[in-house]
Amino acid sequence: MNDQQRTSPGFLAWVLGIIPLFLGTIVIFGWFSGNQNLIQIRPTYAPMQFNTALGFLLCGAGLVAFHARQRKLGYILGATVSVLGFLSLLQYILNTDFGIDNLIVDPYITTKTSHPGRMAPNTAICFGFSGLFLVLFGASWEKKACRLLGATFSTIVGSLAFISLFGYWTNQESAYGWGNLTRMAVHTSVGFVFVAIGFFEMAVRRDWRSKNTLPDWIALPPSFAVLTAGFCLWQALVVHEGEQQSNKLATGVLMAANIDNRIEDHSEALQRMARRQEFKQSFPDQELESDVYQYLEHISSLDGIFLLDQEFQVHWSSSKDGTQPKALSGRTDFKAFAEFIDSEEVDQRPVFLPGPETIGSPSREILILIGIQSPGGVGYLCATLDLGVVAQETRVKSIQDYSYQIQYQGASYWSNAVAGHTPPSELLTGWKSLPMGDEWTIYSWPSEYESTNESSAVPLITLAISSLIGLFTFSVLKLAIAVHDKSVALQRTISQLKTETQERKQAEETLTARNHDLETIMYTLSHDLKEPLRSMESFTKRVIDRHSENLGEKGSDYLNRVWKNTQRLDGLLEDILHLSRALRMEEPKSDIPLKSIVDDVIERLADRIEETGATVQVQEPLPALPVNPIWAGEAIFNLLSNALKFHIKGHSPDVEIAGYPSSSDSMYGIRVADRGPGVDEEFAADIFGLFKRAVGRDVEGRGAGLAIVREVAEKHGGQTWVQSREGGGSEFIITFERVGSE
């Protein structure tokens, strides 16, 4: 499967492009046909505006155009969608009307719509960024900055769509509507979800085709999704706290109303008692005392009842414990009430007045003054209510503790709240008590209430944590993508190395086979050519010995040259045969003491040593190494033979044989040093080649000895080289790898 086939849009890609196109077409048909069900999912939901449906049609067509490889058409459709979205948004910003909202259809559904026919501002943002994504994708997706911008735009579209769906799911209107502006329709949210997924699929497929790896922007969508979820949770917590505060405030108002109702009930009961005493000639009588006794017994907040005459003198009093009511506190008159009382007003309704201060603390009582039209001289029925007990009577056990404050003429008169704890600003209107008059205001609020202007830190902490999680997600995904890319690159490298290794192994096997064939050819040629060459040498020698007189001087000279060259060729073939045998030597299996090999070589060359008067010194110890004793001896033989051969005229050869390196306990070779003329550096590497010589033909030799030394060293995993010897001469070193040792 080639890249073109692998990255061609599949079934999912076409579906993700067709869905928004189909959605836009259906809603447009709904606007033209008047089918409200297609435009508005529910009667209480916002409709999908005509321009919104048109935007979906163009956006879906743009996706399909790119899938159909109509790049230019997709680019144009994307630019159109972007212009439509940003022009609609600009109308909100400038508070103007460009006339595009009602250009094609006159909107007849305006549910939750601030401007008839105009798409929601969040919808306009989504279309603006959707169009920009298509433009960037069609224009210059190859640029990294454009890919990052495109990924950001598509993520914003998806995030706004999910926020809107979250709002519909949780019934949080602020999630899909901003302020009092047009709301995003529920099917608009669904449409943008498919658009965002379509963008994501198209971008991933495009990047995969260009780089065959995960795109570098792929960490953005999941991170934005986390941030979006955190934003939704934050918004839900804020709204939930706001609703809780509102509920608490509403309950507080209800509690204040309960206090007011309770006081009104008590005052109405006292009025009924006062009406029953009118037109009586004397007070108190048995009926009044009975009424007072029952009221004091059954109304727990009623502290005492007393009668005042027309001059506000205390005429009679009674309390729960049978003593003087606390409101009297030794007083015999209440002439100060005169300035508060309008005789006509007190005859029509009760008058509520601040109670007198008790000893050592502010009063928490109020006085209820009720006029009595009596010929007996009594003018007023007065009762004292304990506000603390009234508040306790109205408290609901299932509701948390509430604080109360009752103000008189704008100043706090009584409160059960903690010192300094005042009603929240949201309750400044208070509960105006109708029976008590406009001078009295009742407040009630939760004792642990926090003002909505100073909401708890939980939503902000949630938003901060979600932001950190989003950043962490982005970092982890970027790291994972980097690791994935490195892994892919490493796998490719490993695959290439495997291929190269296999190719190299095959080449080595081929080379080994060819070398084996070459060794066989060398052995066969050197062996088979020796017989005819020896015949030529033998017959040439016979001709020279028997017929030299008949050949003449020149003929004899020519024939002698032929004979000598035949001998030389025979020696060369012998060397080649010898080298071919070295190439086919068996690998060593156990350590062999090099001392025994050196002694054997010295014994083989004893005649030449004696002939040249050479001095051969062997420095012990010599190492024991895993070598082929025959060929290791052959190499040392060639080195010692060369040392005896190449020496300064007039001086006997001076040869030293030692282990290498000589200063280490782990010796792994032999060093053969002489006092000969030495080897020029330019020839140091060449003399180990076959038939390579650093001297002229006046010195015996054919140039194969050092080649055999090199071959022996390499067959043992070692190497050989020559270096100058201190004081003159050369040092030839051959090393052997410890094949059998660890």
Descriptive account of the structure:
The chain starts with a helix and ends in a 7-residue tail after the last strand. It has helices at about 5, 10-35, 35-40, 50-65, 70-95, 120-140, 145-170, 175, 185-210, 220-275, 285-300, 345-350, 385-395, 460-530, 530-585, 595-605, 605-610, 630-645, 705-715; strands spanning about 300-310, 315-320, 350-355, 365-370, 380-385, 400-410, 410-415, 430, 440-445, 590-595, 615-620, 625, 655-660, 670-675, 720-725, 730-735. About 55% of the residues lie in helices and about 10% in strands. The longest helix is centred in the middle third of the chain and has 71 residues, at about 460-530. By secondary structure, it is α+β, with helices and mostly antiparallel strands. It has 19 helices and 16 strands. Helix 14 packs antiparallel against helix 15 (about 530-585) and helix 15 (about 530-585) runs parallel beside helix 19. The radius of gyration is 58 Å and the shape is elongated.
